[in-house]
Amino acid sequence: MTTKLYVGNLSYNVRDHDLEQQFAEFGNVTSAKVMMERDSDRSKGFGFVEMSTEQEAQAAIQGLHDQPLNGRNMLVNVARPREESGGGYRSNNGGGGYRGGNNRY
């Protein structure tokens, strides 16, 4: 089973292939993805790497955490599962409504 790693504090010019090259030294990289801004081609400064085994992932953490990549020291640890967001429905009805007043026709 693959192990997903969080990689933070990335330089804004780091791309997927840069992560893949760095982590391949420690084992088989099944995926490497730098998270990008939705409206531009700019990195958000973090990404995720999946390693084939937990042992390879631990070796990558030991070998790469706090090590430089393009001038910034990477933060590398096991990725946490995404938290539930509550379904995306907001019950707070903050919209406008009928305000009354002088209605002239």
Automatic annotation (TrEMBL):
- Which superkingdom is the protein from? Bacteria
TM stretches of this protein: none
Alphabetic keyword roster: RNA-binding
User: What positions does the domain RRM occupy?
Assistant: 3-81
Enumerate the SMART domains for this protein.
Answer: RRM
Cross-referenced SUPFAM superfamilies: RNA-binding domain, RBD
Entries under InterPro entries matching the protein = Nucleotide-bd_a/b_plait_sf, RBD_domain_sf, RRM2_NsCP33-like, RRM_dom, SLIRP/GR-RBP-like
Where do the segments described as Disordered lie? 80-105
The record ties this protein, via Gene3D superfamilies, to: 3.30.70.330
- UniProt-recorded Gene Ontology molecular function terms: RNA binding
Q: Does the keyword RNA-binding apply?
A: yes
Q: Transferase among the record's keywords?
A: no
Q: Residue spans with biased composition (Gly residues)?
A: 86-105
Q: What is this protein called?
A: RRM domain-containing protein
